[in-house]
Write a structure and sequence with these properties.
583 residues, alpha/beta, DNA polymerase, domain 1, Beta Polymerase, domain 3, seven-stranded parallel beta sheet, five-stranded mixed beta sheet, 14% strand, globular, disordered N terminus, Hlx-hairpin-Hlx_DNA-bd_motif, exonuclease activity, DNA-dir_DNA_pol_X
Length: 583
């Protein structure tokens, strides 16, 4: 549960993100009570809708305006939104918190623990908090529960150790929701000339621990820092001085602010962007050239060679600028020295999206709405890939419903100009590697995206063989979210990813880089493996509403971390090129 949702109440004037977090917590608590699954799903869907809603609902309520009709949000949920907007409280949430042991919800933040397992831990072992879980793990009692085992117990032990050391992490959009308003506020301060966020956020790590904020300003009289500390969303000031401050935001993130002079801003930006390993390697290079590199600049014999601009630091060390996403000491300095840095992919390189859903399955927008949104982006194509019948929780399509959608796609393609809708499916890969729909139906599609949504506990060998058999289907094109991870919730399932990549290469299949922020699957390491093998990746939004196409930004960040260039992306091809590759 996020920090705002844990508070006794929310600040009046709550934003859509905070209301969504309340609805998510309600869903979690209802799940822990084993409540009606349709009711739980209603709150989760509403939270998802609110995250995609651009207009601040609380502002409309404060102005006495009626709320717009939103997908999945009926009278009851509208009343709760109004209650939160007016009072900062939700009586249902308060009641559920009283009924559910307060520490039980924290278990849901651990990898491998969902509501069913949390319910099992509570009722079979009496585990009602992280502390109680630590005792149960230390005593070896967790592994004896049905469905747990030693592997999951070891994962929990590592996750609990991380919690003890205070290493809380946030998904990129969670971090962006807190970083964006802060940055907007800082940039409008008259005393601040420049404001940037460095650290893992700038490197586009898949999760972020805290925010490192750099300001270019005159710090001598303390006025600039005093203005920073007036940011309304600050919950706590841990420490502050004229040039440095450590803050806690109401959203839960810690922020370290540093005010830097103009002639050192570039050096500080390079230093605090990191990673630590990249910084050490760069400082060693400086030492080898008789220089000293720190957050204030690059020096030789007391003379400052560079510091005002980040690019000047690299140039003075005989290197071209290295993109922040590559700064992990994974060969980027050697590549820069030998002029082998990749020309990293950009969002504008994509010609379309090959994985999206409509309200025919578990999406929120209609086929026409998704198509028009893609058309507005100037894309050449959009693949419609609903879930197949076996994923009943997502209202997956059977043969008849899929055939009706294919007819609808034909009608829309006759109307659209500049955009082609591709007929597709996200077909379930069953436990034995067979596909959920018959070959004669798959043969009628332009694109078949295969996905795993069950049987995560298969052994490494069986899971690998399962995916290889799926790719052996003559109609199989793309393996979706190949490793099955959910960041901060579920570890990747056991898999020999190198064998899967090699099999994709042999079969002429492709892998997906799923841009959903809780997935970002493949990770950067696997992206590099696929690039090395020459296997193209589909950078896909997995959109469930038109606004989800914006999530491709996160996928591009991950792709850049994985050294991908435009030529490495399947959906950087033109429609004609794509059709040839899919055949």
């Amino acid at each position: 549960m996020s920090a705002p949702a844990k508070a006794a109440g929310l600040p009046i004037g709550v934003d859509n993100q905070q209301i969504a977090e309340v609805f998510e917590e309600i869903a979690e608590l209802l799940a822990l009570q084993d409540a009606n699954p349709f009711r739980i799903r209603a709150y989760r869907n509403a939270a998802r809708t609110l995250r995609g809603e651009e207009h601040p609902l609380a502002e409309r309520i404060a102005a006495g305006q009626a709320l717009p009709k939103l997908p999945g949000i009926g009278h009851d949920l509208t009343e709760k939104i109004t209650e939160l907007a007016r009072s900062g409280e939700c009586q249902l949430l308060n009641r559920l918190r009283r009924e559910v042991p307060p520490g039980l919800g924290e278990l849901l933040q651990l990898p491998g623990i969902g509501p069913k397992r949390a319910h099992q831990l509570y009722h079979e072992l009496g585990v009602d908090s992280l502390a109680a879980l630590r005792e149960a793990v230390a005593g070896g009692r967790v592994r004896r529960l049905s469905g747990f085992g030693r592997t999951l117990e070891d994962k929990l032990r590592r996750a609990l150790a991380s919690r003890t050391s205070g290493q809380q992490r946030y998904l990129l959009p969670q971090a962006a929701a807190q970083a964006g308003p802060l940055l907007d506020y800082l940039k409008q301060l008259p005393l601040v000339e420049r404001a940037l966020i460095a650290g893992s956020y700038r490197r586009r790590r898949d999760t972020v621990g805290d925010l490192d904020v750099l300001l270019q300003a005159d710090a001598q009289d303390g006025q600039a820092m005093a203005a920073v500390l007036r940011f309304p969303a600050i919950a706590e000031v841990f420490a502050s001085g004229a040039t440095r401050a450590s803050l806690g935001l109401r959203g839960g993130m810690q922020v370290d602010v540093r005010i830097v002079a103009a002639d050192s801003f570039g050096a500080a930006l390079q230093y605090f962007t990191g990673s630590k390993a990249h910084g050490i390697a760069l400082r060693r290079r400086a030492q080898a050239q008789g220089c000293k590199l720190n957050e204030y600049g690059l020096f030789r014999d007391g003379n400052k060679l560079a510091g005002r601009n980040e690019a000047d630091i690299y140039q003075a060390l005989g290197l071209p600028p290295i993109p922040p996403e590559l700064r992990e000491d994974s060969g980027e300095i050697d590549a820069a020295e030998h002029n082998r840095l990749p020309r990293l992919i950009e969002l504008d390189d994509l010609r379309g999206d090959l994985h999206c859903h409509t309200n025919a399955s578990d999406g929120h927008d209609s086929l026409r709405q998704m198509a028009l949104a893609a058309q507005r982006r100037g894309w050449q194509y959009l693949a419609i890939t609903e879930h197949s019948r076996r994923l009943s929780v997502a209202h997956g399509l059977d043969t008849d419903r899929l055939l009706r959608q294919l007819d609808e796609i034909d009608r829309l393609n006759d109307e659209l100009h500049g955009l082609t809708l591709l007929k597709g499916i996200e077909v379930e890969i069953l436990a034995d590697g067979s596909l959920d729909l018959p070959d004669e139906l798959l043969a009628r599609l332009d694109i078949v995206v295969g996905a795993v949504h069950s049987h995560y506990q298969l052994s490494r060998a069986r899971q690998t063989a399962r995916l290889q058999r799926a790719m052996d289907s003559p109609h199989f094109n793309i393996l979706a979210h190949p490793c099955g991870r959910l960041l901060l919730q579920r570890e990747p399932y056991p898999l020999d990813i190198e064998r899967v990549i090699a099999h994709a290469k042999q079969r002429g299949c492709f892998l997906e880089l799923n841009a959903q922020p809780q997935r970002l699957d493949l990770d950067d390491h696997c992206c590099r493996l696929a690039k090395h093998q020459g296997v193209l990746l589909s950078i896909a939004s997995d959109a469930h509403r038109a606004s989800d196409f914006d999530l491709l930004e996160f996928g591009i960040g991950q792709a850049r971390r994985g050294c991908l260039e435009a030529a490495d992306a399947l959906n950087s091809r033109s429609l004609a090129q794509l059709r040839r590759l899919l055949r």
